Amino acid sequence: MPALEMASTRRALLEAVAAYVPVHAADGVRVGVDGVDAAGKTVFADHLADVLRVSGRSVVRVSADDLHQPRAVRHRRGRGSPEGFWLDSYDYPALAGTRPLPLRTGWLPALPDREPRPGR
């Protein structure tokens, strides 16, 4: 499929998904994107946020990718350890405590601006 055609197909898909995101909600709207490693979740979420912004929606983009533990912590059980992958990959207290609900009424933590990653 030519790149231009693929881009318009992806744009159409993102616009269709964005149409399902409610416009009015008293407590904001949270959209989660989940999937297996390397499936393109981060890129998809970045593009969906862009489509929502272009349509005039206010977006706070938060990603678990921003909460990876340092390598020394992630690999302390061994680089190929399933337990280490599951238990040590992320800063779970930060993920559970301050990041998941940034749009709750009356509460908006100071989040760093999220710059696009190189190549994305």
Summarize this structure as a short list of keywords or feature phrases.
120 residues; 2 domains; elongated; mainly alpha; 0% strand; 40% helix
Topology of helices and strands:
Elements: H1 3-19, H2 41-54, H3 71-74, H4 82-88, H5 92-97
Helix pairs in contact: 1-2
Structure description:
There is one protein chain. The chain has 120 residues and is mainly α. It folds into 2 domains: 1-61, no CATH class; 63-104, no CATH class. It has helices at 3-19, 41-54, 71-74, 82-88, 92-97. Helix 1 (3-19) crosses helix 2 (41-54). The longest helix is centred in the first third of the chain and has 17 residues, at 3-19. The relative contact order is 0.13.
Uncertain spans, ≥5 residues at pLDDT below 50? Answer: 100-120
Oligomerization status of the protein chains: single chain
Q: Tell me the radius of gyration.
A: 17 Å
Taking all residues together, what is the mean pLDDT? 77
Our count of domains comes out at 2
Number of helices: 5
Task: Compose a concise summary of this entry.
The protein has 120 residues and is mainly α. Helix content is 40%, strand content 0%. The chain folds into two domains: 1-61, no CATH class; 63-104, no CATH class.
